[in-house]
């Protein structure tokens, strides 16, 4: 076996063959199954886009209706999962609650009949259907309330916002939220998707695959950045403070949250669409000063770091949209997870077809021939 050159973070190292999505980091392009993210954001829905990502084709009207019906049917969670979640500490992070409850789904549905297409479809439907319910249930329970039951007369996004806030959302809000889910659904081999792939390659159950991915997405350098962006805007506090803030970050080589990307060396196309959604929200539901700070921040970061290929990424404007929707800041990353379950499931299914367990190698930097030293002789 020839050992290749070591690349920190596997930067630029292809880890799989995949036809699910494509990113051109120099041109700022993102396609799901060959369709541009701009077209899907404008014309599709999150559920239809999930079908496209997972089964590789746009569904017919009948196929989409059947898929939506199955998801509606499976939105409820077992009372045992709900009772387990009641034991979670209110102050626990919702991503930890989601990881635990996603893994717990395996206790009820695991069976690991991975060769059976019906089992694959059941797992896809159950995870897409139940993850939003569990996020909303945790939010209600940590406020001391019973979970709000899903409503079959509401579509995927409207139902989530209804379970979260116990009131029917404005149709424009629900539509904007659905576009946000589509934008966050998939993004080639990012850290959490790679986590899902490695777990999937051992042929474990899909619930464990999603739990692995949730744990990976929670990190502040990955999905957790959207929370950090809002906290950063709060710390900056005014447009006047932006330039000194950026200059200090550049001087100290501090990472500015919501900027930079391993692949994009221009503005993330999702950030452009999210910025437009933020503007639409503020036009219809009232302005937000944080937006002015964000626009100024993007301008100064581009001036200071654009030459290094550091531009706004998907997390920069998403937090502003979610905050305007009244979504609590520590639920921003769980919302990212609700969307990315779609992409994780697509890669899980693709890995089953690849059927090769991940087992990379290393370049050993340790020593050989060391002796065991009895504890009394150690200093
Ligand atoms: C997501 O991979 C995906 O597709 C992820 C994602 C998805 O959809 O799944 O797109 C979602 O994770 C978006 C990224 C969200 N994270 C953040 O916004 C956190 C802040 N960004 C960074 O931590 C960073 O940009 C990363 C982690 C996203 C990417 O980092 P890299 O590619 O490992 O780059 P690096 O850390 O090696 O930095 C290269 C240079 C360094 O400067 P030099 O030492 O060369 O002088 O760029 C600088 C870094 O200091 N740099 C930044 C910076 N990001 C990189 N400087 C200031 N602010 C930043 N945000």
TrEMBL record:
InterPro entries: 2-MeCitrate/Citrate_synth_II (IPR011278), Citrate_synth-like_lrg_a-sub (IPR016142), Citrate_synth-like_sm_a-sub (IPR016143), Citrate_synthase (IPR002020), Citrate_synthase_AS (IPR019810), Citrate_synthase_bac-typ (IPR024176), Citrate_synthase_sf (IPR036969). The active site is at residues 261, 315. Pathway: Carbohydrate metabolism; tricarboxylic acid cycle; isocitrate from oxaloacetate: step 1/2. Pfam families: Citrate_synt. Gene3D superfamilies: Citrate Synthase, domain 1, Cytochrome P450-Terp, domain 2. It catalyses: oxaloacetate + acetyl-CoA + H2O = citrate + CoA + H(+). One of its GO terms (cellular component) is cytosol. Keywords: Acyltransferase, Transferase, Tricarboxylic acid cycle. The keyword Acyltransferase applies. It comes from the Bacteria. GO terms for molecular function: citrate synthase activity. One of its GO terms (biological process) is tricarboxylic acid cycle. Belongs to the citrate synthase family. This is Citrate synthase. It comes from Tychonema bourrellyi FEM_GT703. The lineage of its organism: Bacteria, Bacillati, Cyanobacteriota, Cyanophyceae, Oscillatoriophycideae.
